[in-house]
Write a structure and sequence with these properties.
By secondary structure, the chain is an all-alpha fold. The chain has one domain. Helix content is 63%, strand content 3%. A hairpin with a 5-residue loop joins strand 1 and strand 2. The longest helix has 29 residues. It is globular and about 75 Å long.
Length: 582
Amino acid sequence: MHDSQPEAIPSPELATREQGFRARATFVKRKLTTRRGWLGDYDYAWLCLPSMPFAKRSTRPPPFYALDAELPLTLAIFTGLQHALAMLAGLITPPIIFASALSLDSATSSYMISASLIGSGILSLVQLSRIPLFGGYYLGTGLISVVGTSFSTLSTANAIFDAMYRDGTCSSTTAADGTVTRDPCPDAYGMVLGTSLICSFLEIGLAFVPPRVLKRIFPPIVTGTVILLIGASLVGSSGALAWGGGSNGCQSFPTSGIFQLCPTTLAPRPLPWGSPEFIGLGFLSFISIILTELFGSPFLKNISIIVGLAVGCIVAGAAGYIDGSSITTAPVITFLWVHTFKIGVYPPAILPMLAVYVSMAMEATGDITASAEVSRLPVDGLEFDSRVQGGILSDGIGGFMSALFTVTPLSIFAQNNGVIAITRCANRSAGRWCCGFLILFGVLGKISGFFLAIPNSVLGGVTTFLFASVAVSGVRVLSFAQFTRRDRFVLAAALSFGLADILVPDIFTHLFDGVDSPSSGLEGLFNSITIILSTPFLAAGIVASVLNVILPREMEDEVPDDEAREFEEQMHTGSSVEKVEV
């Protein structure tokens, strides 16, 4: 009889790990080698065929793919691309406007577009992940919550840049005829980045405030007013000016210098601002969006903004209006930090940027609610509150990280909710493909060079529609208010400041001109107040918030509890600046 060693028994952890590996390998093999893995049973014809008049379409909707359901590979790639294209216009517009406002060269402008795309892709992955933290808190929503530069940041940054050129932080040149031309000022962009970096801690703190408390402080009468004025002000300060030919000074019709014609006298076919050629190009892009909505397939309807840009660029290129130098000089491959900016803090911008982060927190609440609703998930309860908390926290940390990425604050977008609703695909796999496409678009520098070459009039026709859609979102949020006498009073008082700013932009610019030799600290305070009062949505938002808190509620203004809850649930789905389902 000889000794025999007992057989080794694998540990449960090792067995579980091996089983998990085998299951994963089997899943990948099935996904890559079977028709069902690639195509599934989705109706791709329904997604891609146009809506022709009198043509019959299938009445059977395609299957709904939930958050973590198994998704066919082709559909994941297809819908991921659709998500990326749906948010593309909103991502490239802010850096183009920032670069134009600061007179930056094409290489820097192209890099800013690439950085915006790459930063959006990276931080959107964080929102998709929903990482558990301490004490039941989370980082990210776990939904297809993609991020981009908030239009509230765009509106405020323009006012900050104006203040920098007024107080001498940035220099300008005055021609013999009195025309003022802004000199390039990349340091101004670095100061906005630095200021947004330190102000991001406010939104990080707001992430730990219960969502119900935030919604009571900022009801629809406040958030709707803010959103309405963001869209309306951007139409006047950016969209319509670009539609006419440019907003770099040529709209003032100077009699000397390169801005006598738009966009400059050095352009391939320069023309006076407001020329019929410019108006026609912008209108062509505009009408293309409308025709896409009328006759386009569900896929095209979700990217109608890109269709408008494409049609306008094709005609503009054929007519000789496109300057291809930005494409030829753009690098083939680029990434973050290829260009850097001197990070600084502009003290007068601190208060306005704090207000922007409060606005972004409220936008995030509405966007997350809308995303959960179209994803067929609960919009109340502890799980939903944790998604809101995780989304706001990710937005706040994203504001900090985006500054390090050389990008202005990135917050949750809502364009993608329309993609989810139409394609019936709320799966996070599609969201990950979307992030991959965004990063790819940013890394390929020639793509950013092409976006920079889009003529102002084409971009203006599209962004005017985009910004007007933001204003309509504000009207929709206002429709959830009860419009009692108290609500009407708050709205009228807020719009008094907001509309005054839009219609007479310089009304508060010279408010402190009569103060003789103020100290540097006092001058910074004056500049901060001027920026807030000169930004329509900030001035109106502060007035609406203060009056909402201090005005007493009369007996007839009170609403039954169940009706109040209904308004609150409705507000969930509407309080978003970027809810532009086009």
